[in-house]
Specification:
alpha+beta, about 50% helix
Length: about 400
């Protein structure tokens, strides 16, 4: 049995080693994506203006007046004083005709106190400059920048293989069962003897012949990284093959609520330029106030996170987050409120307080994968684990190379 697992471990590992190594290194970098992005592009993120942000309706109107070819698609509401808001924008359809040529950007960096535009960029595009480096790296980590779902399928398959490789590697390090007199010893004595024989597998090599050093390093790294490897592989399956693999399995144990964007009906009556209908429509500020009143009791202390007009659905999407979301340890809860843009009536809730047990389980997946579940220490741990995983992959390939040459 071990011989079979050893062959599977070797050849599956060699097949996905490159993908795992790339994912591990890029994951280590994007664990601190925002900090690195701010360091590379201070002119985009820092305004130096500590004045109070202007009302959200006035800010949206000023932005769209400066950039008439786009509309505000998502407005952050949690920006600290002195920092710019990274506003998501979408092409605005031409009045009475099809959409104009798409602009070369989908993000605007805006001073919320003055509506001054500090910069523009297209998220995930490679343009060879500092402004686009970290978003491109994030996209590369998620999809390898391949078209459609191809990158997700490759990375999801690698995550499934990684899960199996990790469990197989654990099995291969276990000592063989003892027979004869050793098997007749008291149970406690047998367990202590078993652990004593397994202990050397956990020890890092510091010297020795080349092959033995690489072999022992690969084995010890695999054992020490095993909990994080299992966690990253499992959450990687969710993030890449959520609808195809992960959610169907989770749905066997509980109901998963479909996202409102997939079930809200398209509505006629929006303006030709893509704006929400005028007249009796709620302003963004009124929508925010109405959404806050519709929060579940458990989420009444949540803070505004972002606001997104949805012209095609005739709705607003307003998100709220618990204080310290994805910054402090164990802070993963959020709630999204969808309201009619004219009547203010509740269309849907989606998030942690209003979700089922299965929904809440899925909410934990991204914070687990990114390390944000444990705050800053968690991100440091994920960064180091990514570098360790890259070293594990390299050691595995070197082990095979040295053994082939011997």
């Amino acid at each position: 049995m071990k011989a079979l697992f050893r062959r599977l471990h070797r050849w599956c590992g060699l097949t996905v080693a490159g993908l795992l190594c790339i994912s591990a290194i890029t994951g280590s970098l994007i664990a601190f994506e925002h900090e690195l992005d701010r360091l590379l592009n201070p002119q985009l993120f820092r305004t130096g203006n500590l004045q109070q942000a202007m009302p959200v309706d006035a800010l949206i109107a000023r932005i769209e007046a400066q950039e008439p070819q786009v509309r505000v698609a998502q407005m952050p509401l949690d920006t600290p004083p002195g920092e710019a808001r990274e506003v998501h924008v979408a092409p605005r359809p031409q009045a009475g005709g099809p959409a104009a040529a798409a602009p070369s950007f989908d993000r605007l960096f805006v001073d919320p106190a003055t509506a001054r535009i500090l910069g523009r960029r297209q998220w995930g595009a490679w343009q060879g400059d500092r402004a686009h480096l970290m978003p491109w790296l994030n996209r590369f980590h998620r999809t390898l920048t391949l078209p459609g779902r191809l990158g997700n399928r490759l990375l999801g398959g690698a995550a499934i293989a990684w899960l199996g490789l990790s469990l197989a590697g654990l099995y291969l390090t276990l000592p063989a069962r003892q027979r004869g007199r050793a098997a007749a010893l008291p149970r406690g004595t047998r367990q202590r003897a078993y652990l004593a024989r397994w202990r050397p597998a956990w020890q890092m090599p510091w010297k020795g012949p080349r092959f033995r050093f690489v072999n022992d390093l690969h084995r010890a790294l695999g054992l020490w990284l095993l909990p994080l490897a299992l966690c990253s592989a499992l959450t990687g399956i969710y993030l890449n093959l959520g609808n195809e693999v992960f959610k169907p399995v989770v749905s066997l144990f509980g109901h998963i609520t479909p996202h409102p964007l997939a079930r809200l009906p398209q509505r006629d009556g929006r303006q030709a330029d893509g704006r929400l209908p005028a007249g009796a429509q709620l302003s963004a500020a009124q929508a925010l106030e109405q959404a806050q009143s519709l929060l579940p009791a458990e989420a009444r202390h949540y803070q505004p996170w972002y606001l997104a007009p949805l012209p095609q659905q005739g709705a607003y999407r307003i998100a709220f987050k618990e204080p310290g979301l994805r910054e402090a340890a164990w802070r993963v809860r959020y709630e999204q409120i969808f309201i009619d843009s004219r009547s203010g009536s509740l269309l849907a809730r989606f998030g942690y307080p209003s979700g089922t047990g299965a929904d809440r389980f899925l909410v934990w997946m991204y914070p687990l994968h990114s390390g944000k579940l444990w705050g800053l220490p968690g991100r440091v741990l994920i960064c180091l684990a990514g570098l360790g995983t890259a070293a594990l992959c390299i050691a595995g390939v070197l082990r095979w190379t040295f053994k082939k040459k011997s």
